[in-house]
Design goal:
Alpha-Beta Plaits, 5 helices
């Protein structure tokens, strides 16, 4: 995971989904697990040209490499799920549920996936 978004440091869990149904399923599971609507954000474009998300992702503290990956996916029609959490146990739960419902982490986070 990103240096400032590791499980030992509070920060958002972020993942890409290639369809709105999957991100909706993940959000439903997260709500059932106790996350509130102020913890969850889905960013996507239904029609038209997708805006560049680099500045937005940078403001979340996402590394430049991961931001570039997410931005490329977003430009190709993916939906970005952002799960805010300040407790490492909640981060672990959020990551587990996100991955179970089809969330895709950037390549720099693949080691985290195998550690789960």
């Amino acid at each position: 995971m990103r240096n400032n978004q590791g499980l030992s440091t509070p920060g958002p869990i972020t993942a890409i989904f290639w369809d709105a149904w999957s991100v909706g399923s993940a959000m439903t599971a997260l709500f059932r697990a106790g996350f509130s609507d102020t913890d969850l954000y889905a960013v996507g474009v239904l029609a038209g040209h997708a805006p560049d998300l680099q500045d937005f992702l940078d403001s979340l503290g996402i590394s430049a490499a991961d931001a570039a990956y997410y931005n490329d996916c977003f430009q190709d029609g993916a939906v970005l799920l952002i799960v805010g959490s300040q407790v490492s146990g909640d981060q672990r739960r959020a990551l587990d549920l996100t991955l179970r419902h089809g969330g895709i982490l950037p390549p720099s986070c693949e080691l985290l996936r195998t550690a789960m």
